[in-house]
Amino acid sequence: MIVIGGSLGGCDALREILTHLPADFGLPIAVVLHRHRESSDMLVPVVQRNCLLPVAEAEDKEPIKAGRVYLCPADYHLLIDNGCFALSTDEAVNFARPSIDVLFESAAEWQRQNVVAVVLTGSGSDGAQGAQRVKEYGGTVFVQDPKIAEGPWMPMAAIGTTQTPFVMTLTEITQALIGLAAHRQHLQ
Amino acid sequence: MPPSETSVHREIPPDDLEDLRLLLETVHDRAGMDFRGYAYSSLRRRVARAVSDAGAATITGLHQRLKSDDKLLLDLIRVLTVHTTAMFRDPAFFRIFREKVVPVLRTYPFVRLWVAGCSTGEEVYSLSILLREEGLAERSRIYATDLSDTVLDRARGGVFPLAAMQEYSANYRASGGKMPFSDYFTADSESVIFRRHLRDNVVFGTHNLASDASFNEFHVILCRNVMIYFRRELQERVHKLFYDSLVTYGYLGLGRSEAVRFTAQAQAYEALGGRERLFRKIK
């Protein structure tokens, strides 16, 4: 599955990727964007605009399905648990709830080499520990090029922990994700 | 291209799932506290913290020491039971409760409400304040239960950090609160204590959702963001328990991202209030 994390400027970067994915994109996508705990339900329609895949906030115990975009609801952590999403109201991790690290780490633990983690623009270093865990379990880490990210700090932190060779523009990330999904469909 | 592209997508249980299972067996045997039905991913994060707090290297390392160290056992149970929430979390939930549930509750001579898994009591005090403002305090009783005596003692005490009051006060106002929030507590430099009369109609008691039966019939059950920590099997058990414990046309309140549609009771409830998870038992 694909797990994506973003903070400052993350919503625009996410949309730049999602609006270029084809309707038959064959992998599930789970997204954590840092957002205020009282933020409204406006994020779903904003992300859905011009995106061909169905976008919704993940619900607790919801089975993970391919070809869908799941957003983490405000003021919860989003985790993967045995083929489903799980939510938690445990305390903030590095001042963030939702925490990108929490999503990435649980995805790595359950799905190991089948995880592609994408770290987008943002301030702070959330996602860096989780991306490291994804890599340890044999998964892949894509990072938005800090030179062109609105907030270079989060990408730089993830490059620091993972040394990933996949430091890319949003267009390159999108093409790589499409390639992965198509290749997986071919295998099946 | 990355190597993962050749792998067929399949979910494999995490390496330490079995270690965690064995640890929970020991906790159950030694303390009678049953966490065996809890969902892995959140539990693992909490246990990882206990492992690190204890200076152990692995879950198995903590497990070995737990067998003879009572303090460590209690520390772990504390980490597993404390449940972070806020007063008037999701203010819209309480606003809809005032608008749609309170008028119906007024038609009953006496109202029984159950806050299941009340932890340190944030939800209990929120509900008590709401009932008081709606004139229902005198003819209602809140049953506030948790599996842990330790958190129940804290809930009974009604002491909360002063630093949290700004958030709680804003939540309270957004929920339709009618008074200055500070009327409900007295503060010192670090903490606040909620007024004693808010506990007059509250009964605190131990109840384990994983093993205990229904103990009364209720008009309202609130269990918000508690079952998110349970595996599906335990969640099904608790949903059955709630269904059996609710009067017909009773109300069930869940957390904002919890659903009944993945449970066997899905057809028994109708949803009220759009985005907030407030349900009415209709059959």
Our measurement of the CA-to-CA distance between the termini of chain B, rounded to an integer number of angstroms, reads 55 Å
Helix-strand makeup class of chain B? alpha/beta
The biggest beta sheet of chain A reads: 7 strands, parallel
> Uncertain regions of chain A: pLDDT < 50 for 5+ in a row?
none
Secondary structure class of chain A reads alpha/beta
Number of strands of chain A: 9
Oligomer: heterodimer
**What sequence of helices (H) and strands (E) makes up the elements of chain A?**
EHEHEEEEHEHEHEH
Give the overall average pLDDT of chain A: 94
What is the typical, i.e. mean, pLDDT of chain B?
Answer: 91
Question: What share of the residues of chain A lie within helices?
Answer: 25-40%
Tags for this entry?
heterodimer, A: 188 residues, alpha/beta, two-stranded antiparallel sheet, 6 helices, globular, B: 283 residues, 7-stranded mixed beta sheet, 3-stranded antiparallel beta sheet, 9 helices
Structure report:
The complex is a heterodimer of chains A (188) and B (283). Chain A has 188 residues and is of the alpha/beta class. Chain A is 34% helix and 20% strand. Chain A has helices spanning 10-18, 43-48, 100-111, 128-136, 153-162, 170-187; strands at 2-6, 29-33, 55-57, 69-71, 77-81, 84-88, 116-119, 140-144, 167-168. Chain A has a seven-stranded parallel sheet with strand order 3-4-2-1-7-8-9, sandwiched between helices. Chain A starts with a strand and ends with a helix. The mean pLDDT of chain A is 94. With 283 residues, chain B is of the alpha/beta class. Chain B has helices at residues 17-31, 40-53, 59-66, 70-81, 91-105, 122-133, 149-157, 165-174, 232-245; strands at 111-116, 140-146, 159-161, 185-187, 191-194, 202-206, 218-222, 246-253, 269-272, 278-281. In chain B, strands 6-2-1-7-8-10-9 form a seven-stranded mixed sheet. In chain B, strands 3-5-4 form a three-stranded antiparallel sheet. In chain B, helix 9 (232-245) links the parallel strand 7 (218-222) and strand 8 (246-253). The longest helix of chain B is centred in the first third of the chain and has 15 residues, at 17-31. Chain B is globular and about 55 Å long.
